[in-house]
Amino acid sequence: xxxxxxxxxxxxxxxxxxxxxxxxxxxxxxxxxxxxxxxxxxxxxxxxxxxxxxxxxxxxxxxxxxxxxxxxxxxxxxxxxxxxxxxxxxxxxxxxxxxxxxxxxxxxxxxxxxxxxxxx
Length: 120
Description:
The chain has helices spanning about 50-65, 90-100, 110-120, and strands at about 5-15, 20-25, 45, 70-80. By secondary structure, it is an alpha+beta fold. The protein has one domain (about 5-120): Ribosomal Protein S5, domain 2 (2-Layer Sandwich), CATH 3.30.230.
């Protein structure tokens, strides 16, 4: 089985005390025909409520590694999920990787980016 999670995320510096994490929830989205999921999966736009806690856990796990930025808003604004290939674990891993990529220092070497995808 192929795992599937699609997250569209924005990290914006704002006048906040700490890090704000916003996850848009929409479980009733229409079909997403341009997905890279396997042909046997039906992909829908939106983030079901059941994956929100996993996304937050992924951010926290990444924060434990790289630290949490201050004065920022991390907004998970777009998502798609597979009816077969998506799971809490997949969305946790996806949010962790995306957060780590967004917080890499400017000019980070390619091997360090590749290393993010090799982590458990």
